[in-house]
Design a protein that fits this description.
heterodimer; A: Immunoglobulin-like; 2 domains; seven-stranded mixed β-sheet; four-stranded mixed β-sheet; about 15% helix; B: 2 domains; five-stranded mixed β-sheet; disordered N terminus; disordered C terminus
Chain lengths: ~240, ~325
């Protein structure tokens, strides 16, 4: 091979490698879930954050994966993301609309509410027609009762909240089938729970990862693959900003 | 060296071999003292427990043994650069090397003695501190002297009955169970100072690695295996715990802070924690050395009773679809 031919080959090979790296980087970065910024919503030292769990993710190419959604504070729509930002030293009032069915915890320890203000979560059950009044709960026995669908846990803050599930076979068999479960999808009135709790964000800014401790990645090794290990589904990050 | 030293010997010439030997001995002795006494106490992982102190001692001994070697190499290198440089205009070849049986024999004997001695030393250092903080598997060979596992349901400070703490890895957090205090499980690791501890390390899912760096404890957390490690904390205070086995996307975040407390504070902590976690302790499976969801009778019972076919909380059949 002549010298010019070798030089051209080398340059082309180099450019191909660079293009591959750039493609992978942008593809990966571009696939990151968006961030719902609640910092500007804070008022009187409090901010309200709303999340939703669903039994499927019909808005993605993984329709049979369970997932969290977060309400966009600007539009009011539920976006498919698990990343949100809140201010430091602020009371975060969380509402989780739990539209998934029950799954037992692998470790029953995560059945106890921890790290919330008052050490409780308030739960209202909606069976498709009527809702029970919100009542405080502290412990869930997911091995004895159909009671937990996921958890919302921030290990770095010692926060653990079991997300209560609807309890009967009929309710579990009539879950919302389109995600997010909203009025627009005619699914908002499917059986679900409304879980509310509050916690304080730390004084110092930082990023705190959160996750579900229910092995709900059905069909994956140990139940912890798939949605359990993918940002935007059953794990995410809470960014605390100053 | 012999050739070079010989070449520079003779009336009025520098005696390189003698100077090198004397310099090496003097520098080695001085550096060994510095390594052993000045640097040694600061070597990782510190001396906060029996296992950590044992590891630090081993590192100090190895460093002291290595010091004369390092000094000798650097000294010879510096000497050669300084005194044996090729003179400008000198194009002659170097003197040929010849085999020297005495030198070769000395080298083989000396290095063999060092390596075999280190093998003996390493074995002793593994046995004496009861496994040196590493996991010994479910049936440990080396246990802290004078301790027993007479009771798995009670513990008294200073007794022969060793304190047992179960370390449970799961994606992605550590939890700790205290069978001798009612079997409560918590996300906080507390240990009493001056008391031997038996850590029973296991996992609920994949392979994790329990690494309490400043305690000198590092052991695999395997599902369905009880990996036993021993230590005795020497000083009160915090210590970091992290996972040392790549275990998934949040592996890097799988760390927390443990605490070594005075014996009185530890007992007070166990009492308070036992009460605080009483409700959830009732829900835990009976204490066992390992935890296998495929054999925990209660797991998935709810789903079966309801006729649900979703995720059951256990390990899934490998024949399930969507295996990655």
């Amino acid at each position: 091979m002549s010298l010019p031919a070798r030089a051209v080959t080398l340059v082309v090979a180099f450019l191909l490698v660079v293009a591959g790296v750039v493609f992978v980087a942008f593809e990966f970065i571009g696939a990151q879930p968006s961030l719902e910024n609640y910092t500007s919503q804070a008022k009187d030292g409090q901010v309200n954050v709303t999340l939703m769990t669903t039994a499927q993710t019909t808005v993605t190419n993984k329709p049979d994966w369970v997932s969290y959604f977060i309400k966009n504070p600007a539009t009011g729509d539920f976006d498919h993301t698990t990343y949100f930002a809140v201010p430091a030293s602020t009371r975060v009032n969380v509402t989780i609309l739990g539209y998934d069915g029950c799954t037992p915890l692998r470790n029953p320890l995560w059945g106890q509410v921890a790290g919330t203000i008052g050490g409780v979560e308030d739960v209202s059950f909606f069976n498709g027609k009527t809702a029970t009044p919100a009542a405080p709960l502290t412990t869930f026995d997911s091995w004895a009762n159909c009671s937990v669908q996921h958890t919302f846990a921030i290990p770095g803050l010692g926060l653990n909240v079991p997300v209560a599930s609807v309890t009967t076979l009929k309710e579990n068999n009539n879950l919302c089938g389109t995600s997010p479960c909203t009025a627009a999808n005619a699914d908002a009135n499917s059986p679900h729970t409304v879980v509310t709790f509050s916690f304080m964000t730390p004084k110092t800014p930082g990023t705190y990862r959160w996750q579900c401790f229910v092995p709900c990645g059905l069909g994956y090794v140990d139940g912890n693959g798939g949605p359990m290990g993918t940002p935007g589904y059953m794990m995410g990050e809470m960014e605390v900003r100053s | 060296m012999a050739t070079e030293a010989g070449a520079s010997s003779g009336p009025g010439r520098r005696r390189d071999g003698l100077w090198l030997a004397v310099s090496w001995i003097v520098l080695s002795v001085a550096c060994c003292f510095v390594v052993a006494l000045v640097w040694g106490p600061h070597m990782p992982p510190g001396a906060a427990s029996t296992s950590a102190a044992g590891q630090q001692y081993s590192t100090r001994v190895l460093a002291v043994i290595a010091t004369p070697v390092v000094v000798g190499i650097l000294l010879y290198f510096g000497w050669a650069l300084t005194f044996w440089r090729q003179k400008p205009g000198d194009d002659t070849d170097a003197a040929p090397l010849h085999g020297n049986t005495a030198v070769q024999a000395t080298w083989i004997i000396a290095t063999s003695a060092i390596v075999l001695s280190l093998a003996v030393f390493g074995t002793v250092e593994l046995i004496t501190p009861a496994g040196a903080g590493s996991g010994e598997g479910p049936q440990p060979i080396w246990k802290p002297p004078g301790t027993t596992t007479a009771s798995a349901t009670s513990w008294t400070p200073g007794s022969k009955n060793i304190l047992q703490v179960q370390v449970i890895g799961q994606q992605w957090a550590w939890t700790y169970r205290y069978p001798q205090f009612g079997g409560f499980e918590t996300t906080q690791l507390a240990l009493p100072v001056g008391q031997p501890v038996q850590l029973n390390i296991t996992s609920l899912d994949v392979i994790h690695g329990f690494w309490a760096y400043s305690l000198g404890v590092k052991a695999d957390a395997n599902p369905d295996v009880n990996d036993v490690a021993y230590t005795t904390p020497y000083v009160t205070g915090d210590f970091q715990v992290r996972c040392d086995e790549l275990c998934g996307i949040w592996h890097g975040s799988m760390y927390d802070t443990g605490e070594v407390l005075s014996v009185a504070s530890f007992l007070k902590w166990t009492q308070a924690t036992r009460v605080r976690l009483a409700d959830v302790t009732k829900l835990l499976p009976p204490y066992a050395a390992t935890y296998d969801p495929t054999v925990v009778a209660s797991m998935g019972k709810v789903n079966a009773a309801l006729g649900l076919t979703g995720a059951g909380g256990g390990f899934y059949n490998p024949a399930d679809p969507e295996q990655p």
